[in-house]
Model the fold of this input.
Amino acid sequence: MKVEEICIDSEEYPKQLRNIYDAPLKLYVLGDKKILKQKGVAIVGARKATGYGRKVAEQIATELSQLGINIISGMALGVDSAAHLGTLHEKCIGKTIAVLGSGLDKIYPKENIQLARRIIKSGGCILSEYPIGTSANKLNFPQRNRIISGLSKGVLVVEASEKSGSLITADFALEQGREVFAVPGDINKETSTGTNNLIKQGAKIVTSYIDVIHEI
Done:
């Protein structure tokens, strides 16, 4: 499959992304690029997620996808991977979009190379603003988070520590006028600190996919 390039002035470029501050001038896409213009919700969270966090992310992703809503995430380990996997069940109508912090030929983490293939095979897509040959760089990941939120109607944070990169995605969502959702967590666990703080700051509490549907 060939990597396709979508420039910001192209009709194929998703309008909701074009309208954000510092929109990427070009997107590199593998898979079905048409889904980039469809309604989607971002689900993000801790890489070192608990079993609870992974289960909740996958469950909500499945339920939203069964209603035809696409799921957007960053294909990191933990919550991101669970969210992508949630859309790969048989009865799911919505697809999944993975936004990378590297070139599409440099899948990171390597543990998710097979997941990337499954996403494409299922009718989803993987994309990046970074050209082929670009290796994963820690500075790229905060930047790619603006794309995750920019493609979405809202961002759901499932688990996040106090300094989690997922909170950067939530900040971008606020700047871009997107809804911010958070799943409440165990007050004794570090992975709940960030999400519980988001709720204190006004993020919408999510205990069911219905809470997301009501807002988008």
